[in-house]
Specification:
It contains 10 helices and 12 strands. With 269 residues, it is an alpha/beta fold. The protein has a domain of 71 residues. It is globular.
Length: 269
């Protein structure tokens, strides 16, 4: 099963105050695939994701979901199709883990409707998938950063949308939990055809888990396509101002970027 929802960024210009961050951006998100957005700090990755989820209104252009402007869609209607994990979410003080994850069910509930068996099942499945079931009764503000991040991901999973937007979902996680979360998203994509769009800092994890890479530089798309076509030494140099060697990962067969630091560059001369 693959979602057929079309998410398109059409000549989008974004900014804050007097500063323009993204200029005339054109992006087509492949439906039913995993897309990773990469780039240097302040290149517009999170700004783009905020506008795609209608948290930031465009100065020009549109974000279209199935041909409709997301900034004109009713919030609840959009939330049944598109879920968002922002970069630095804030939980209400004292809220328990299960209650926070349960808030992901809000788009599916009607006025005066009661909590249903389907809601229970969705929350339990999300807690189990993220390894947070044992934390269900604990206050969120007592958890470690990594535990909190997994709880937020559980909330988004409980929303059960066909599209997921995640801004740095591996923040605060150690390497083992980073891989667990990305495996979870890959499994969700494989099982349900969920379209996943995520901002990642780790180029090698992005290349390993994404079907489609978008490399941003100075608010514009420098390269987009399959990881093997995008993650090249030229792209790393242009986007990150970094010399590197790109080889084939012997485990996954995907591109593997090896940075060349100044010390090693001198040593090779």
């Amino acid at each position: 099963m693959t979602t057929d929802h079309q998410l398109t960024v059409d000549h989008l210009t974004l900014g804050y105050g007097d500063r323009t961050v993204v200029t005339d951006l054109q992006v087509d998100v492949p439906p039913g695939r995993i897309t990773a957005i990469v780039g240097a700090n302040a290149c517009g990755k999170s700004t783009l994701l905020r506008s795609m989820s209608r948290l930031l209104a465009p100065r020009a252009g549109q974000v279209l979901l199935d041909g409709k402007d997301v900034h004109r869609m009713p919030a609840k209607q959009l939330a049944r199709t598109l879920g968002l994990l922002p970069q630095s979410p804030v939980a209400p003080e004292g809220i328990a883990v299960a209650d926070l994850v349960g808030r992901g069910r809000h788009p599916h509930q009607r006025i005066l409707s009661r909590w249903s068996h389907d809601d229970d099942v969705a929350v339990a499945a999300a807690l189990d998938a993220t390894g947070t079931a044992e934390l269900a009764d604990r206050p969120v503000d007592e958890l470690s950063g990594g535990q909190r991040q997994r709880v937020w991901i559980a909330m988004v999973l409980a929303q059960q949308t066909d599209l997921l937007l995640l801004d740095e979902p591996t923040t605060f996680l150690d390497v083992a939990h980073q891989v667990e979360v990305l495996d979870l998203l890959a499994d969700l994509n494989a099982a349900r055809g969920t379209t996943v769009v995520m901002v990642l800092h780790d180029l090698n994890l992005a290349a390993r888990y994404a079907d489609h890479l978008i490399a941003l530089a100075d608010g514009r798309v420098h390269a987009a396509g399959a990881p093997g076509d995008v993650l090249t030494e030229e792209t790393v140099r242009a986007v990150f101002d970094l010399e590197s060697r790109v080889i084939v990962d012997p485990t996954s067969g995907t591109p593997l970027m090896l940075p060349v630091g100044r010390h090693h560059a001198v040593a090779r001369i």
